[in-house]
Q: What sequence folds into this?
């Protein structure tokens, strides 16, 4: 078997891994050898420019695990997470929020303060060119949402986003065709590589132990070939940073059979279970033109446990998120240029039985059950969204838990009777998740957490975690900036650990 | 189709026209694209999932025998719809999940075809901002 040797190996190149790579990169000038091992491929700009028609499936296959439809074990939810040079930062919409102070207070991690996270968040937001979209670039889908929320007295805020030269393709979730989104594939990884960090794509990490990582390189039929030859490789490293995301990081640690007891490993997985809701207008609105996500409403976060965001999805994604089939479904699908869309995110609790395990082959299995409170939140979110659609002027709306396929504007006063809990059956309605969190949660008690407040795995000074799996509970907002802020902390601690090694 | 036997493929084709009515009048090219997408999606799933899907199609085929005296593809459209509606709304969880998986696969096979997009009034552009105030 071939062998490679580094001081630091980082597993994963998304928001966490990319940030750690960039922060440690200056050490290369002092002779440190640093490698990022990324499972996914690095796509060329030509591949990102795949035509809009038919792009949905073509890009999903290249940029997501299982095309964005990984099931939980209960088959009641699909999970979308990226697999690419840049990880999920290639496929998010670039919404950039600082985690609320109250959320960090609820996390209650000794040694982790909101002030520290906010400071680091501001730093990465500056790096990523985060700013508000100008008013003339806001499309009808977003404007209607904002105006309706204001009319109803719901608190609504604009998302800061991390784009540079956005031309409004509206295809963020399939990789930006205009190279506008400032994910780690555009900012942190190129910066790290310029300073000497090696990024090895198409490289799946099979397992790890103290001082070494076992990986396999296999080139898919797209993207650039890996810098390494195909086949298995043993990589030695003084420090290993795992940043493979909330599904794959716990799975990697679980199949690696670490020499410490970590009963919380894989547990307390949260997902912000999501619904995509639609309202139909009489006339076409601008929805698939322009940036898709400009506003969010956190009015119901504390009272009912959900957030609402603007969104605009693609034909297949839209079709599978509508309940029903046949003529009515088809009728709604034929008017995509008249659809207003809202994304619901439920704020879900961190429970020990919602967890990542591994199967006999070492592959991750996500066990996730919806609590009654989460289902209640999803129900209320449909009613609130319906009110917003109607306040925005929609002629009719579709709610997955509706007593009928369409609810007409003249029925808006009967939403409680027309959108009911008995229709909200897991496995009947389409619930998805793109915010995967927990599984390697931070804390000071090894019985209930996996790492300390700096991402170091309890009892293993050579092993760190730096991704959304660190979250002890869900983030209650879009998580990527918080992942980067935490990764920035992890990098700081790794730097110290390397220096300690040199002086010891 | 490589990942479904001919019997299951025939059941899938029959039910697909109930889920997406446009498929009933689709031309050979669109059906070919449908089959290619579904086949690739099945190829990418673990063998166990493919087996479960084939098993669900067999259940769907036989389910109406007791009540309507005929397998699914030979039922009139209204009865087929009743069977599918029951599977979606009232069946035990495993069957409900199977129905969800079936619908998802059929929607994928049809709605992810680039040629379908104009019929959905869906025509995004890489320079979408230029169309915002047109």
A:
């Amino acid at each position: 078997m071939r062998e490679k040797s580094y001081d630091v190996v980082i597993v994963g190149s998304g928001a966490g891994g990319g940030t750690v790579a960039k922060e440690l990169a200056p050490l290369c000038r002092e002779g440190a050898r640093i490698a990022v091992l990324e499972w996914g491929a690095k796509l060329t700009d030509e591949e990102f420019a795949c035509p809009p028609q038919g792009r949905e499936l073509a890009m999903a296959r290249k940029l997501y695990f299982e095309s964005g439809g990984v099931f939980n074990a209960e088959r009641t939810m699909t999970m979308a997470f990226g697999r690419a040079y840049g990880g999920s930062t290639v496929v998010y919409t670039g919404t950039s929020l600082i985690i609320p102070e109250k959320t960090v207070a609820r996390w209650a991690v000794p040694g982790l303060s909101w002030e520290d996270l906010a400071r680091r968040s501001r730093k990465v937001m500056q790096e990523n060119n985060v700013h508000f979209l100008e008013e003339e670039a806001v499309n009808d889908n977003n404007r209607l949402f904002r105006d309706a929320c204001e009319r109803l007295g719901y608190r609504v805020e604009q998302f800061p986003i991390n784009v540079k030269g956005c031309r409004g393709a509206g295809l963020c979730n399939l990789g930006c065709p205009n190279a506008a989104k400032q994910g780690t594939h555009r900012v942190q990884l190129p910066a790290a590589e310029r300073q000497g960090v090696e990024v090895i794509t198409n490289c799946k990490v099979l397992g790890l132990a103290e001082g070494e990582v076992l990986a396999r390189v296999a080139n898919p039929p797209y993207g650039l070939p890996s810098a390494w030859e195909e086949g298995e490789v043993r990589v030695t490293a003084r420090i290993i940073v795992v940043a493979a995301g909330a599904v794959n990081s716990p799975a990697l640690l679980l199949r690696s059979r670490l020499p410490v007891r970590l009963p919380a490993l894989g547990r307390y997985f949260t997902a912000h279970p999501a619904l995509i809701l639609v309202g139909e207008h009489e006339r076409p609105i601008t929805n698939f033109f322009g940036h898709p996500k400009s506003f969010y409403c956190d009015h119901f976060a504390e009272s009912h446990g959900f957030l609402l965001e603007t969104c605009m999805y693609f034909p297949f994604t839209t079709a599978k998120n509508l309940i029903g089939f046949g003529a009515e479904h088809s009728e709604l699908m034929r008017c995509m240029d008249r659809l207003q869309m809202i994304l619901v995110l439920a704020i879900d609790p961190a429970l020990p039985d919602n967890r990542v395990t591994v199967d006999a082959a070492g592959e991750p299995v996500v066990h996730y059950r919806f609590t009654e409170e989460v289902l209640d939140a999803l129900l209320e979110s449909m009613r609130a969204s319906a009110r917003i659609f109607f306040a925005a002027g929609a002629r009719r709306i579709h709610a997955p838990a509706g007593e009928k396929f369409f609810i007409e504007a003249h029925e808006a006063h009967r939403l409680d009777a027309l959108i009911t809990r008995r229709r909200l059956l897991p496995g009947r309605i389409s619930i998805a998740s793109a915010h995967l969190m927990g599984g390697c949660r931070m804390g000071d008690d090894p019985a209930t957490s996996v790492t300390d407040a700096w991402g170091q795995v309890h009892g293993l000074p050579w092993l760190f975690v730096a991704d959304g799996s660190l979250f002890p509970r869900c983030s209650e907002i879009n998580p990527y900036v918080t992942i980067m802020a935490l990764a920035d902390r992890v990098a700081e601690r790794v730097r110290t650990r390397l220096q300690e090694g040199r002086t010891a | 189709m490589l990942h479904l036997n001919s019997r299951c493929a025939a059941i899938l084709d029959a039910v697909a026209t109930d889920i997406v009515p446009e498929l009933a009048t689709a031309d050979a090219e669109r059906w070919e694209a449908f089959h290619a997408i579904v086949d690739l999606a099945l190829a990418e799933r673990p063998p166990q999932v493919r087996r479960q899907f084939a098993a669900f199609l067999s259940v769907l085929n036989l389910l109406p025998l007791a009540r309507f005296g005929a397998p699914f593809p030979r039922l009139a459209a209204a009865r087929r719809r009743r069977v599918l509606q029951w599977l979606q709304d009232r069946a035990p969880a495993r069957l409900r999940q199977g129905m969800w998986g079936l619908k998802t696969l059929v929607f994928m096979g049809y709605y992810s075809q680039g040629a379908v997009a104009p019929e959905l009034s869906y025509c995004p552009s890489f320079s979408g901002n230029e169309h915002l105030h047109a």
